[in-house]
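Progress against Task 2.4 (sequence-to-structure conversion) is shown through the following example record, which the project officer requested during the mid-term review.
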Amino acid sequence: MSVDKRLDRARIEQAFRIMGQYLLDRKVLGEIAIYGGSAILFQFDWRKTSQDVDARVISDSNHGFVIEAVREAAKQLGLPLSWLSESVSVYTRRDEGVADRVFVGVYPSPERFGLRVTAAQPAYILAMKLSALERSTIDDRDYQDAISLALECGVSTVDELHGVFHRFFAGQELSPAAELRMRDLALAIQARPAKG
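Structure tokens generated for the chain above:
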């Protein structure tokens, strides 16, 4: 029998509360930005779980403390040490700013917190998912997420999808493998009923 290792919002927030308390106890304010599936599930009801939390520590001076807090949450909750992954940093845009993210919350509570969490805004996640179309996975999660995100963002044509990508990654091009999937992606978006 296999155990589902996916994280839902409640479990992720439980980990964030532990991290926040750990940082608060050390009189440190840590800040992370989340991306991918975890950023989607904090913004939309249609995504229920994520395999991990793709994140970037944006409070550089406290990076070590934040990573210690990640380890503490893993220990207390029996999560793998990789439950929070910083590997997404290679996919984020170089000049990312505050306007690229939305506020998620402060932990362990709004009154007393040691951790501030933001998430990539939907259009930014869509741009990252378009870039990720260069690789295939068994469940093709990036492709499915791109369809749902495009509907949320109100884009449905290849040109509009390119527009979203170039808004966040100006001067860059999609890989040939990702480009080959754009037409099918636009058709899949158009075949789905609009959100709302």
